[in-house]
Amino acid sequence: MKVTKSEFVIGAVGPDQYPGDGLPEIALAGRSNVGKSSLINKMINRKNLARTSSTPGKTQQLNYYVVNDELYLVDFPGYGFAKVSKTQRLAWGNMIEKYLLERVTLKLLLLVVDLRHPPSKDDMIMYDWVSHYDIPVCVVATKADKIPRSRWAKQIKQMRQCLGLRIDHPLVLFSSDTGLGKDELWGIIKANMIATEEDDEDEVLTEGQ
Fold first, then answer.
1. Domain count within the chain
2. C-alpha to C-alpha distance for 70 and 59, rounded to whole angstroms
């Protein structure tokens, strides 16, 4: 996908602030320092539209980025290492759960993990949860350039086993430095947008019969 236009739209803290234009949404979930902001910047060819931080947990809302006026990338608050209160974590969890279950414009969840390490407990909980509710998901293993290529197969096998990754859920190796996986990931995003649009059309036709 050729990105010619992208911008930050809103940091939403509830459904009343979500965009109402009906554009498809691709959400990103992962622990606080896994590289979601760097992934977004690489995908949209911008250096710092999505702000990166050395302080875990800086993202405390759903950050919406519009791409080519065609879709939104929605960055979730990071989990696992955020130095916030238990009450705030619970509020984030409730907000994300409500979004995932009720947001009809959600087309795909990108579960962002670090290729160098086994999936965390929170990664596994998130994957189990979205799988249970049959939410379309793609696992994106970042920082692939940080380990030798000879270790990739071992790390991928470990990741698949720890998550119990379903055969219909893709896993993409990604590097925000080299661009590895960028085109493949855009392909998966576009395919899910098309697939869900066709499903919606089928539902409309069925209801009209």
1. 1
2. 24
Residue ranges of E strands in the chain = 6-12, 25-30, 62-67, 71-75, 106-114, 137-142, 171-173
CB 14 within 8 A of CB 61: no
Which range of residues forms the domain containing residue 191?
A: 6-14+21-142+149-208
| pLDDT tens string 126-158 | 999 999 999 999 999 999 999 999 999 999 999
Which of 155, 180, 184, 141 minimizes the C-alpha distance to 34? 141
- We report the CATH number of the domain holding residue 31 as 3.40.50.300
Residue 81 carries which side chain, given as an amino acid letter?
F
Is residue 37 domain-resident? yes
Query: What are the structure tokens assigned to 159, written together?
Result: 């990741």
pLDDT digits (tens, 9 = 90+) for 15-58: 999 999 999 999 999 998 899 999 999 999 988 787 654 444 45
Does residue 1 belong to any structural domain of this protein?
Answer: no
d(CA 207, CA 122): 39
Rg, C-alpha atoms of the chain: 17
**Which residues on adjacent β-strands are paired with residue 137?**
109
Q: Which residues lie below 8 Å from residue 73, measured CB to CB, with a gap of 6+? A: 25, 26, 28, 40, 43, 44, 64, 65, 67
Q: Are strands 71-75 and 25-30 parallel, antiparallel or unpaired?
A: parallel
